[in-house]
Amino acid sequence: MQTAGRTLVSLLELNGVDRVFCMPGESYLELLDALADSSIDTVTARHEGSAGFMALADGRLAGRPGVFTVSRGPGATNASIALHSAQQDGLPLILIIGQVPRNQLNRDSFQEVDYQQMFGSVAKWVAEVTDPERLPEVITRAFTVAMQPTPGPVVISIPEDLLEIPMDPPQAPLPAFTKTAYAPEPTQITRILELLGQSERPLIVAGGEFVSDDDRQLLQTFAEKHHIPVAVGFRRHGVFPNQHPLSAGDLGIGTTPEQQANFEQADLILALGTRLNDWTTLGYQFPASPWPKQAFVHVSADASTIGKNVQPTIGMATYGPSVVRALLSADANTSDKLAPTPGRRAWAEKLAAYAAQRLVWKPRRYDDGVAFGNVLTALAEQLPETTSMVPDAGISAALVYRYFPFGGPRRLYSTISGVMGYGVPGAIAIAMREPQRTVVCLVGDGSFMMTGTEIAIAVERKLPVRIVVSNNRSLGTIRMHQEKQYPGRSEASDLPGPSFVQFAQAFGCQAFSIDKDEDIHAALEAAMKVDGPVLIEVNASLTSITQS
């Protein structure tokens, strides 16, 4: 019998969904039963937060929102961490919640929650379906809202009794929703080129809208043509090769006062495809808020960010790659690479030289374990160009942003929100979507103990995920800040835990340990040869964090 639950699954298929992540619940059994008869791959997580993280990562790669399903009340509460990450990162995500039956709504029923109140400040849209005939409209709108103009999270609540109502299957064209085009304004393109022609020290700040390899090549072509240095926004490494002679480094936590002073010498800032959050603007200091010291062009698909904190000379509510494409087309009659003035060449060389010397990790030794940077350096040497790096949060991730060489097809899949626990489930979802690539998760012991049980999925599906656990028996980032602000008083940040090698082996996952520097190369070489998931536990030095 065709039910509303089966209609919902058909609508997901019509919108291109081939994988759904879930933590099963009694409040949407009809949906689960319908999924069993569909073309959709259903992945069962061990926690709702992990299901959300997997869907978040999947949405980065699938060209449509990641989808996950949870039960009402506690299930939805656990799922909220992924919604916040989607909002912070600008990633398309749809959460479907099994709600209490319709005759129990608004009665403070068992596990009932008003999801509009709960998620209204985080989600782009929250809807509760009480009429099955509106399912096609609501689901199609959910995909549209989640995808554009700036992607983000959408929440759909469906009462469990509604899912069981008989309903005719949907009749929809393909694709079921159409992405809206946002064309750059030609007069503004001309004005940008005029500003660029007058500039001696231009700087591109590139953001997360440069998603595809084609988009990133477009950015590189434009930068090379006009000889413009490129600084990537907060945790947007991989948007522009960090070993390129025009790489000016990144804007964020690791930006030094000297580097900021260099950036501030720019006479033109082209902020392309970025919402300019607090980290990318170095606390709203660069460009200066509310009026920059230099000509400032801000391009973002999110119109609400244009002029929000910094007033632009030119503001364009459109996609960064579209503007770069228009800029290249507008001066297509000129040569592929314009000869830079001596001043612009010197400017680019100055920024690139400073960024390049900060990429160099100097090996170091400690008595209490291995400096994790030593492991990262060796790992970078062994990994192929087709590597997807999935750092979690904390010091292990910070070292990736600072020292790992990104270029060519190497990709970074991190979170802007800095959420703990994303790494393992995120890497698993990426390995499902990109089985031909080498997927590496770098995670601290604190984060691993939050979601490390998802390693069971990697074992079950024989996914070639490499998980490197930095075990310093501490919440390292918190401990570092405690030592700076309250020396010798590290309350609550010690974190005794298990042997992660034995933990992984208990799930059927191969595992290796790096106890001292001499173990690094052999352990990594052995791990890279494993056909399937593998975990490497690093006896990481805490002193390297607290005294650096």
How would you describe this protein?
The chain has 548 residues and is an alpha/beta fold. It folds into three domains: 4-163, Rossmann fold (3-Layer(aba) Sandwich), CATH 3.40.50; 186-358, Rossmann fold; 372-546, Rossmann fold, CATH 3.40.50. Helices cover 38% and strands 16% of the residues. The protein is built from 21 helices and 18 strands. The protein has helices at 4-14, 29-36, 48-62, 74-89, 115-119, 135-147, 160-163, 186-198, 213-226, 257-263, 320-330, 342-358, 372-382, 395-403, 423-433, 445-451, 455-461, 476-485, 500-506, 520-528, 543-546; strands at 19-22, 41-44, 66-71, 93-99, 125-128, 153-159, 202-206, 230-232, 247-250, 268-272, 295-299, 314-316, 387-391, 411-412, 438-444, 465-471, 510-514, 534-539. The strands form three sheets. The protein has a six-stranded parallel β-sheet with strand order 2-1-3-4-6-5, with helices on both faces. The protein is globular and about 75 Å long. The model has no long low-confidence stretch (mean pLDDT 93).
Beta-strand proportion: 15-25%
- Overall mean pLDDT: 93
Poorly predicted segments: none
Q: Termini distance?
A: 65 Å
| Order of strands, widest sheet | 2-1-3-4-6-5
CATH superfamily of the largest domain: Thiamin diphosphate (ThDP)-binding fold, Pyr/PP domains
Summarize this entry quickly.
With 548 residues, the protein is an alpha/beta fold.
Task: Give the topology, please.
Elements: H1 4-14, E1 19-22, H2 29-36, E2 41-44, H3 48-62, E3 66-71, H4 74-89, E4 93-99, H5 115-119, E5 125-128, H6 135-147, E6 153-159, H7 160-163, H8 186-198, E7 202-206, H9 213-226, E8 230-232, E9 247-250, H10 257-263, E10 268-272, E11 295-299, E12 314-316, H11 320-330, H12 342-358, H13 372-382, E13 387-391, H14 395-403, E14 411-412, H15 423-433, E15 438-444, H16 445-451, H17 455-461, E16 465-471, H18 476-485, H19 500-506, E17 510-514, H20 520-528, E18 534-539, H21 543-546
Parallel strand pairs: 1-2, 1-3, 3-4, 4-6, 5-6, 7-8, 7-10, 8-9, 10-11, 11-12, 13-14, 13-15, 15-16, 16-18, 17-18
Helix pairs in contact: 1-2, 1-6, 3-4, 3-15, 8-11, 9-11, 13-14, 13-20
